[in-house]
Amino acid sequence: MIWALLVGLVVGAIAKFIMPGKDPGGIIVTMLLGIGGAMLAHFIGTSTGSYRSEEPVGLLGAVLGSIVILIIYRIIVRKRV
Length: 81
Hints:
By secondary structure, the protein is mainly α. The protein is 75% helix and 0% strand. The chain has 3 helices and no strands. It has helices spanning 2-18, 27-48, 59-80. α1 (2-18) crosses α3 (59-80) and α2 crosses α3 (59-80). The chain is globular, with a radius of gyration of 13 Å. The model has no long low-confidence stretch (mean pLDDT 86).
C-alpha cells in the first residue's frame, strides 16, 4: 500500500512536470493523480488486450494515464469559468 502511494506520487509529479500549468496542488492530490492514471491505463490496457488483468501497468502507461486525467480536468475547469 505504501509502495503504491509512493509510486503514485512519483507518477503524478512526472505528469505535472510534463504538463505545467495551474492544477490542483498538494502531495495528496498528486498521489491520487498518479494512482488514478495507473488505474486508467490498466483499464484501457485490459480493454484493448494489451495487459492481462493481473499484470501491473508500467511507469510510462501510468504517466500517460495521469496526463489524460489532467487534460480532462483542464477541459472541465475551463468550461466552468
